[in-house]
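Budget justification, computational time. The allocation requested in the original proposal was used primarily to generate structure tokens for proteins on the priority list. As evidence of use, we reproduce two of the resulting records. The first is shown immediately below.
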Amino acid sequence: MKRAGTPLLLAVTIGLGVWGDAAQAGQAFMHTGGRTSQPIGHYEFCQREPVECRQKTPRQAPVELTRQLWAAMIDINNAVNASVTPRTDAEIWGKEEVWSYPTNIGDCEDYALEKRRRLMELGVPAGDLLLTVARQPNGDGHAVLAVRTSRGDFILDNLEPRVLAWSDTPYTYLKRQSERNSGAWVAVDDSRSTIAVGSVK
């Protein structure tokens, strides 16, 4: 039993339970609305890397969440988090909101871009790998990668070693890339925040 308990295999085993939990929670998928403004950092990234923002995906079912994909999501999340040292855009570039692929240092959106690139290299469609902007509990902005799967939306996050269902994270989600057009963004209707406020009152 000890031999099977490597971090990756253990995470995959634990993750099998997450699949069922997310599907039964009733909030497996983010609720998105109409088109909204593109983050300035992503807009400038698209100007530098236009091919990254011209990916069109026809309307289709989310990618099947197989054991292999789940293992890859965990592996890539861990690998990128371990290989990139966190630095703010101000520290790296001397200004705010510069989205780029990281080398050995990067900001939150840089981690998300690299994870997206690696999953696309494995054949995951662009329309299922969505850069997503959220607000942390302390009010700070944050960017993560949302992976749209047959069992719900899962978050790859540089602040969290686990791959979690979006509804199990502490963030308030604001907007994300359109699943049909990588250069467009749509609003996220995060009703969990409304429910949370109501319960506090």
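The second record produced under the same allocation is shown here.
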Amino acid sequence: MRRFHYAYVVVAVTFLALLATSSVRGAPGVLIRPLEAEFGWDRASISAAVALSILTFGAGGIWAGSAAQRFGPRLVASLGVALVATGLAAVLTLGALWQLFLYWGVVVGLGTGAAGSVIGATIAHSWFRTHRGLIIGILGAANSMGQLLLIPAMAALTVLVGWRGAVVLLVAVSLGVLVPVVLFLRDRPADVGQRPYGEDAVVSVADRAADVRGTPLRVAIRSRDFWLLAGSFFICGYTSNGLIGTHLIPHAVDHGFTEVTAAGAMALMGAMNLVGSLASGWLTDRFDPRRLLATYYGLRALSLAALPVIFDVR
């Protein structure tokens, strides 16, 4: 009988952490209009705080990649989720615009970056010798699942009890996820007396070398591939988190859609992202990732080009 592998537990816990942080990243789309109404802040100022959050999200990811190698993903993910919960709790006390920049722009941004997709990639590399592309796809699907499950719930709460109800939901989810992260996440298979999933009893020298190999940032920035990937992820972040995740819901409401309907569109997008992430993980293990990435960006461009037409028709 095959022994149960703890990698399944690690993936499940990491999935929950990514689900929580991704739902937080999508929250500004729900919160912008209520913040405008209550505090009288203009959309540009609120968007600037969200932009700062995206910037610190990236900085948190850079730190998380380095820290996870030194201290392990368990500590980094725990600190990240704790930062998210702390920043969200502070958002409930908002009274001035500078506080939005501090609580959401800095604290929440760093926390979501630290407990974001970098941790998922680290887990896939540390715990799996095979099926890494599929595992990364599954963990990538957590981002879509958070959008699918929690964005409509936040929109409904905002309509029923106000925007603070939506933030309380996110605080509860973050604290709820923090418990299994602290209790059950482990840094590497050796911590539970196991080998990486899919590893044979005899491991090649090349595989052992790959496990400990790292590329310092000062070396990576000299590579063309690094800048191509960095540029593609910049475009991805700008069009998803920066454009759609932040502005689609309030812009749709401006054009006559209800908050719940707009949030439903975001949830549908999350559902399709879920399918795409899982399929992409499976495909990456079998086909050239460069061709796949080019296809994805082509489809993204077509969908964005269609948005103005949709709003004009409305």
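A brief technical remark on that second record: The chain has 13 helices and no strands.
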